[in-house]
Fold:
Amino acid sequence: MEELLKFAPRPTGAGEMFQLLRDGRPRTRAELATVTGQARSTIAARIDSLVSLGLVTPSGEATSTGGRPPSTFAFNPAARVVLAVDLGATHARLAVTDLASRVLAEHEEPLAIADGPAQVLARVVELGSELLDKAGATHRDLAGVGVGLPGPVDHATGRPMNPPIMPGWDGADVPGTLQRALGTTVLVDNDVNVMALGEHRTAWREATDLVFVKVATGIGAGIIMDGNLRRGAQGAAGDLGHIRVPGAGDVPCRCGNVGCLEAVASGQAVANALRAAGAPVASSADVVALVRAGDLDASHAVRQAGRDIGAVLAATVSLLNPSVVVVGGILADAGENLLAGIREVVYQRSLPLATQHLRIATAHTGAEAGVLGASAMAVDAVLSAPAVEALVS
Structure:
């Protein structure tokens, strides 16, 4: 980070200086003075302010070059906690994490998003309070809340926008409802964006350009470009599931169009096709179970779903040129069948330059991607330079 700062504007406030410490490496006052170009007295005053907030803590002494060894200071992730909430079509997964997104307590249970915002958010508040207690924290320790929802979200307001599988949620004030109940900052985004953030921060930090594809009840993508999440003008970037698949015919989609990727290659679409052929399946999880049991029809169906996804992803790869495509969601648990179909088509149809060093891999974080991303989203907000500066002032 210090090398980058040689070519960037130097930190001017306590909030900006704090960003240097977020990597967890202990530093002396002298090191911080060298990097920032500020007087040691200024650095000392800012360190004292950050220590009083609990965000920075003394971490021992550096090696002496003569005289008394200088004290070092480091980021203190245990200063506060955040509540991370991952809501899917049929599940709720919550976790309390520290400020480094390390999970301290977590819980998962079935919960139908179609039950509506009043019932679902009331349960989130109830579970969040229970998890805080389990983690040995109180509402006073709660620095922020991050929420992922299974539908389009206006990130600026945190309100769902015409979500197709969330009846009663259109325009619902999710941040306001949770903030009134929990008394802290609340950030809300589309679940796939949140999962992309979690996977990127956990497993692919070195990849500045990444596309995360979730294949579950629906299909969507989260886009990381130049190291940052890209949401698009209205937050609709990455909506792979409603791109028409070449040769898909007139298969109806819940969005009102026909031939959409979600209608032919989602976990539910595969389950419907197998059930129509006589297989005892009702859900994506049933499809995964059949594949793991060695059922050839299920394996072939999942591989074909991969090919259909690959047909849409090929254009995405040529357009965005990511270095990594990560595939998550429950259907990714079916193993190599899905990835094999995706790779088969993407490497065949995308531009050779775009696929020369492209990696297509299964998500490392699995079911944890959503809560890890929700935590990272909340942490980024509450530990941003302006937010910390406001606390110090």
About this structure: The CA atoms of residues 94 and 127 lie 8 Å apart. The radius of gyration is 23 Å. Residues 1-8 have pLDDT under 50 and may be disordered. The first helix runs from residue 2 to 5.
